[in-house]
Design goal:
The protein is mostly helical and about 140 residues long. About 60% of the residues lie in helices and about 0% in strands. It has seven helices and no strands. The radius of gyration is 14 Å and the shape is globular.
Length: about 140
């Protein structure tokens, strides 16, 4: 699995990509939501860069043998911790958590894999308090 500099747009986009693939399906609703909210711009990327990073992330998962669509989450706990560890900036963590929650809810349900990613973000980033306060748009 590739690594990216801490807090880089690529590291942030990979958390979004993980949320996209966590339910075992890259749905039209999710890709349309990414475009509609210009998530690429929010992360400092061009649209094509975000979509390319999603493809690259899937390739990395396939080559590492981790991508098994029947599993609840497409990465193991160690890899999940490594991915979350690349995001260290508190404001970026809050932004990504907000984006990933919205992304997980786009199809009107949060699957088990998406829930695992969201819980991991909250736990790894220490954002428990963020779950119980009105959303702030950071």
């Amino acid at each position: 699995m590739r690594s990216y500099p801490a807090n880089s747009p690529q590291a942030a986009a990979r958390i979004v990509a993980l949320t996209v693939v966590a339910d075992g399906d890259i749905g039209d609703a999710e890709t349309q939501w990414l475009d509609r909210l210009a998530v690429h711009e929010q992360l400092g990327l061009a649209r094509h860069e975000l979509h390319a990073l999603l493809d690259i992330f899937c390739e990395d998962l396939l080559s590492s043998g981790q991508l098994k669509w029947a599993d609840a989450c497409p990465v193991d706990e160690r890899t999940l911790a490594e991915l979350m560890g690349e995001i260290q900036d508190p404001a970026l963590r809050r932004k990504l958590l907000r984006l990933c929650v919205e992304l997980a809810e786009v199809d009107a349900r949060v699957d088990e894999g998406e829930s695992i990613v969201l819980v991991a973000a909250v736990e790894h980033w220490g954002l428990h308090h963020e779950m119980f306060r009105p959303s702030s748009r950071n």
